[in-house]
Amino acid sequence: MTIISRYLTMKRLTHFLSLIYISLTASAQTLNLPPRSSSALTGSQFVATISSSGLSLTARENMIYTEIANGNVPDFYRNLVPVTSTAVISGVTQSVMYYAIPDYLAIGCDTNYFLCPMSPMLATDIADLTLCTLPTRKMVNDIWSAATVKLSPSTISASGTMTTVPVFDQHNTTVRGQRNSVISTYPLGNLVSGDKKDVVVSNSIYTTPNRVVIYGWHYTSGTAIQPLSNVHSDTYMDYSHGIRLVQNAVVYNGNPTTVKTILQSSTLNPLLSDEGAMANPQYPYNTAVTTLSKTTAFAVTRLSSTSIKLFVANDPNVTHYKVYLSTDGTTFNSPLTLLKTNLQITGLNSDQIYFVKLEAFNQSYNVTSAVSELLGAVTSTLSDSVLIVNGFDRASTGNTFNFIIQHGNAVLNNAKGFSSCTNEALTSGLINLTDYYAVDYILGEESSTNETFSTAEQTLIKQYLQSGGNLFVSGSEIGWDLDNLGSISDKDFYHNYLMATYLYDAPNSGIANSCYSSVMQNNFYTPDSIQFDNGTHGTYNVDYPDVIIINPAAIADMTYCNGAESSGLHFAGTFPGGSASGKVVHWTFPFETVFNPAQRNAAMSSIIDFFFLQNVSTGIVKSIDTDLKVYPNPSCGLFNIIGEARGEVSVYDLSGKVLLSGVKNDDRFTLDLTNLSSGIYILKTGISSQRIIKQ
Fold first, then answer.
1. pLDDT at 673
2. What is the pLDDT of residue 318?
C-alpha cells in the first residue's frame, strides 16, 4: 500500500488571566480551524477542480486537506453539537458528553457546500489537525439518536462510477435537496444524520491490514443499512462515505479527559464503545508532529479598551498558542493556552501596554515550539494610530528581540496608542500598513544577510508613503545593505523613499566604535544631543552606524559627534509615484539604543509632532487620536460618525484642500464619500480631526 502523502510533512494580571481562562474554556467547543476566507472556493467550485479523471487520489486528497486546513468549511460547522452517551459501569449508569460537527465534513460555504468522501488516511490527518477523532459504532448510533434532523438514506445503484467525483457530486445534490426541504424548521447547525455512512474507528481496523471500517446510514426507523465492515481497502471510498469529526477533549465526572483515553480504558470504554477497549483507537496513518517552528509572522493589536487580539499566519501543525503576557516586557505570568482560531484576550486594564510572546503548541502530540520575539499593544478607548514593526531578525550580539519595549514606551509616553507586528506579518498580509497613521520600523543591526527591507517590504513601504503615510525608520546597517550592496531597485528605494545616499560604514571615515552620540540641528528635536549604546548600557554595541548624504529634498536633523557627518533626516512631500503628501524620519543608528529614557521620549515627541500635527491651510492643528467614533474605517464610501460632531463638518485631502463642507446638528450621522477617489482624507468636526480611509 502507498500511504497518501500530504504537505502536513505579575499579580495584577493574575486575576484577569484567570477570568480569561475560565471564559475560553467554557466556549471551547468550536472547530479548530482558521476563519473561512471570503474568496475561498464554494462547494461547486471545488468539485470542478477535482473532477478530472486524470487527477490521482493523492493529488485530490492533498487538495482536500489544503482547503480544510485553510478553513474552507461552512460557517455552521464551527459550533459543535453536544451528544451524550451512557453505559452501566459497575452497576451504576454513567454518562459522558462529547461534541460532534453538525453534519458530515464538507468544503464550501453555508449556501454551497460539498459533503466530501475521503480515505481514512486523510480523515485521520484532518482529525488530528482539528483536535478531533472519528466516532465508534456506538457513538454513531448515539449521534443518530441525538440528531434533530433524521434524513432518509438516498442510495445510488451500484456501478463502477460510484467511486468517482461526478457521482459524489450527484449524491451531494440529492442530500442537499433533502436538507433544504426542512431548513426552515431545522436551520443549519442542527445535528443531522441519515445522509451518509460513517468511517469509524474500531478494533477491526487491525484484524486485517490496510482496511477502511464503515458503519451506519440509518433508516428513519433507526436500523442501519451498513453493518460494521472492513471488507474494503483503505484507498476505497464511494459516494456514501462520510466523515464525522468528534472533538477529542471531553469532561467525565468533572475531570478533563479525551475520547481516546476513554476508549482505551478497561473500565470506562463501554461509555463510547460496544466492542470493548481499543488499544489504538485510530487509523495508523497519521504523521506525528515532533517539532514546531518558532512563530515569526504574527501581530498584536488593540481590540478595545480592555482587550487585544493576535493575528498569526496559519500553521496546520499548530493547534494552540501559549501566550505570555507582561506589563513591563520582562516579568511574565504563566501562559494562556488559546485555540489558534480564538486569539483574543479580554478583561485587561485600559490604557496599558501588554507585551506578548508566543509558543506554538500542538495539543495532540504535546509539542511546543521555541518562544517568539516580543511584541505588544496598548488597550485604549481610542483607536491605535501607530504601528511598530520589528524587522530586526539578525541574531547579532545583544539582539534580545524585545526592543518593542523601548519603542512602545516612548510612543505611549507621547499619548499615542500602538499595535505591533513582525515584518513577516506585513509580507504575509496579516497586517495592512494603511490602517495606521504612522509606522515605526525597527531595524537595529539588520544587514545584508537578513535584508533590511526585502523587495516585498519595499513595495509595501512605497505604497504606504505614496498614499500619504508617515514612516520612522532607524537602524545602523540600512545604507550598507541597500545602497552599498544593493540592486538598482534597492538603491532607488534608499535614495528616493528613505531620502539618503550611503557614504561609508561609520563616523570618522568608517572607523568603527569612533562615536556614540549625535548632535541635533535645525530645531527639529528638543534635545541638543543624544547618546547611543557602546555595548555597556543595556542594549548592544552600535559599532558600525551608517554615515549618509541627505537627499537635497530632505532636511538634515542630526550629525555624529564630530558635527560633520549626517546621521538623521526628515522629509515631508510627495514621493515618486505618489498622490498624497507623506513623511519620513530616517535615523542611521537604532532608536532603541538611545539608553537615556528621557532622551528617547523627547526624540519620539518631536517625531510624533511632525507626523500628527496637521499644519494645513485650514488651520487644523490637532492629534489624530480623538473621542470621535468613525466606522467602518476604512470604508468603501459610507462612514458612520458618532461623537461631538455638532457644527461645521469638513473633509480635506492631505494637501489641505476642502473637498466637502457642511453643518450638522446631530451627534450621529453618515458621511458619504462614494464620489471621492480611494485614498486618505482628514475629517474635521469642530476642533477635532481624524484620518479616514476610502477604499
1. 87
2. 85
Is residue 164 domain-shared with residue 84, that is, in the same domain?
A: yes
CATH number of the domain encompassing residue 301: 2.60.40.10
Question: What's the rounded mean pLDDT across residues 105-119?
Answer: 96
pLDDT band at 678; cut points 50, 70, 90: confident
For residue 686, name the pLDDT band (cuts at 50, 70, 90). Answer: low
Give CA–CA dist 357/359, Å, rounded: 7
Residue 506 has pLDDT above 90, yes or no: yes
Work out how many domains the chain is built from and give that number: 4
Per residue in 371-405, pLDDT (tens digit) is 999 999 999 876 668 999 999 999 999 999 999 99
User: Does residue 180 sit in the same domain as residue 152?
Assistant: yes
Question: What whole-number distance in Å separates Cα of residue 78 and Cα of residue 80?
Answer: 6
Q: Concatenate the DSSP letters of all residues of 52-85 into one string.
A: -TT--HHHHHHHHHHHHHTT-S-GGGSB-EEEEE
Q: Are residues 79 and 222 in the same domain?
A: yes
What distance in Å separates the CA atoms of residue 480 and residue 445, rounded to the nearest whole number?
A: 11
The three three-digit cell numbers of residue 153, written as one number: 438514506
Amino acid at 75: D
CB 606 within 8 A of CB 472: no
Rounded to the nearest 10°, the torsion over CA 29, 31, 35, 36 is: -140
Please write the tens of the pLDDT for every residue from 410-439: 999 988 899 999 999 999 999 999 889 999
Domain holding 559: CATH number?
3.40.50.880
Q: Would 359 be classed as within a structural domain?
A: yes
Answer whether residue 590 is part of any domain. yes
CA distance 29 to 550: 58
- Both 326 and 255 in a single domain? no
Provide the domain limits for residue 659. Answer: 629-694
The x, y and z cell numbers of residue 330, run together, are 520582562
349 lies in the same domain as 248: no
Instruction: Find, among 145, 55, 50, the residue nearest to 107 by Cα.
Output: 50
Q: In terms of domains, do 375 and 408 share one?
A: no
Q: Is the pTM of this model over 0.70?
A: no
Higher pLDDT, 535 or 653: 535
Residue 26 forms part of a structural domain: no
**pLDDT over 60 (residue 684):** yes
Q: Which of 380, 413, 431 is the last residue of a domain?
A: 380
CA distance 68 to 83: 24
Are 125 and 283 in contact by the 8 Å Cβ rule? The answer is: no
Residues 420 and 306 in one domain: no
**CA nearest neighbour of 78 among 100, 56, 46:** 100
Average pLDDT over residues 654-681: 76
Residue 682: predicted pLDDT: 79
Question: E strands within 204-315?
Answer: 211-218, 224-233, 241-242, 246-247, 249-252, 255-258, 298-304, 307-312
Tell me: do 51 and 137 sit in the same domain. Answer: yes
Closest CA to 84 of 140, 42, 166, 146: 146
Is residue 23 situated within a structural domain?
no
d(CA 481, CA 418): 28
How far, in whole angstroms, is CA 374 from its chain's centroid?
Answer: 16
Of 271, 298, 319, which residue sits at a domain end?
Answer: 271
- Give the bridge partners for 84, in sequence order: 97
